Amino acid sequence: MMVMRRSTKLNLYQQLQELLQQGHIETFRESLLSLHIQDQVEWFEGLEDLEIRQRVYDTLTPEELADIFQGLDVDEQQKIMAEMNRDKWILTLNEMASDDVADYLEELEDEEVSTALNEMDEETAEKVQQIMEYHEETAGALMATEFIAIKTTDTVQQVMLNLRNDAPEAETIYYLYVVDTDGRLVGVVSLRDLITSDPSEVIENVMSQRVVSVKSYQDQEEVARLMQKYDFLATPVVSEENRLVGIITVDDIIDVIEDETTEDFGEISAVRGATGADITAWESTKKRAPWIIMLMFLGLITAEVIGYFEETLQTIVILAAFIPLLMDAAGNTGTQSLAVMVRNIALGTFDKRNVWRVLRRELLTGVMIGAGSGVTIALLIILFYEQNYVIAAIVGISIMLTLSVSTLTGSIIPLIINRLKIDPAVASGPFITTLNDIFGLLIYFTIATSMIEYLM
C-alpha cells in the first residue's frame, strides 16, 4: 500500500471524493485501495456529506468496508450502522475480526446485540459471543479467535499448503500454534521455521515446546507486560485446561497500553473519564466535580490547622508569608513520588524484596531535596529579612521535614491502595497535594510554636 506526505495525501483525498462524485468508480476503487488502511480510514472520517458516504457503502465490498470500519471509534461506527443498508451492514460485520465485532457490540443495547448476532453468520456470531462472555479488560475479552492451529503430526509441506487457503482469514501467521488431539497447546512454530525446514519434516520435530501463553481470565495489563517482556507479535490465549482459545496481537496491546496510560493519567490528575476531546462540558463537569468537592472538604482541614495555630500566627505575622511556599513544595514533592510509584507498580517492577529498598530511596531523596531546599531558603531569608535567623531556622527545618514526609506519603499511599486491589492511580495528585499541605502546616506551626519565645 502507498504511504505519502501530508500535502500529497490531502490532494489525493480531494481527488478521491471528486472521482466518486463524477462516477469514475473503478478509478476510485483502485486509488483508494492502494492507500494504507489507516489512510483509508482517515479519508473516510473526513467525509461529511451523507450522499458521498452512501456512495462509498455502495461501491466497496463488505470486506473492504470491514477494514475501514475496524479503524473507527465507536461513535463513528454507530453512525455508519444508522446510514448503511442493513443487509450490507451485517455482511460487513461478518468480515470483521471477531474481537473487533465484540468491542463494537458491547457498546450497544442488549436487544440490538441479540438482533445483530441472530442476523450474522452463525460461525462468526458464535466466535463473537465466546469473546463477549469474558470479563472486560481480560485476555479473553481482548483476544481474536481467527488463528491457525496445526497438529503435531502434520508435515511442513501440509502446513504450507494449508496456509495458502487459511492465511487470509487469520489474524496473523507469523506464529503458528501447535495443539494435540484434545486441542491443548503444546508448542509453537514460526513462519521462519516452516520456510527453512525440510518439507517432509513432521511439525513435532520443528516446533518449540517453550511456548509462553496467557490464561483467558488474566488482566490485560499483565498480558501487555508479558508481550513487552518477550517482544512478541502475538500471544496465545488458553483455557484452564490449557486448550487454545484465541490469540492476542501486538496491535491490540498497543491500544491497551494507550488506554491504561490514559486511565492512569486521568486518575493521577483527578480527571478520569474527562480527558477525551469529544466529551461535552457537562460530562466533563460530572466527572471532575466530585474530586474537587472532596478536596474542598479536605481543604477545610487545612483551614482548621491554620485556625488552631491562630495565636502563633497573630504573634508572628511574618510566618504567613511562607505558607504558600511550604504548601507548594510539599504538594510538588509528593506528586513526584506518587508518579514514580504508580509508574513502577503499573510496569510490575515491584516485588516484596525491593519495595523497602524503593521506599528507603524515596525517603532519602526527600531528605536530600529537603535539606538542600531548606538551607537555600534559610539563606535567602537571612539575606532579605534583616538577618532573622530564627525565622530562617523555622522555615528551613520545616521545609526539610515536610519534603521528607511528602515523598514518603506519595510513595506509601499508592502501595497501600494497590495492596487493597484498587488501581493505585486513584491516589491522585490533587489528593496527595492536599494531604501533604496538612502535614506541612502541622510541621511548620509546631516548630514555630515551639520556638516562639525566641521570636519575641
From TrEMBL:
Membrane spanning residue stretches: 291-309, 315-342, 363-385, 391-417
Pfam families noted in UniProt: CBS, MgtE, MgtE_N
Domain of life: Bacteria
Domain named CBS: residues: 143-205, 207-263
InterPro entries noted in UniProt: CBS_dom (IPR000644), CBS_dom_sf (IPR046342), Mg_transptr_MgtE_intracell_dom (IPR006668), MgtE_N_sf (IPR038076), MgtE_transporter (IPR006669), SLC41_membr_dom (IPR006667), SLC41_membr_dom_sf (IPR036739)
Localization, UniProt: Cell membrane; Membrane
Primary location class: membrane
Alphabetical keyword list: CBS domain, Cell membrane, Magnesium, Membrane, Metal-binding, Transmembrane, Transmembrane helix, Transport
Subunit and partners: Homodimer.
Family: Belongs to the SLC41A transporter family.
Functional summary from the UniProt entry: Acts as a magnesium transporter.
UniProt protein name: Magnesium transporter MgtE
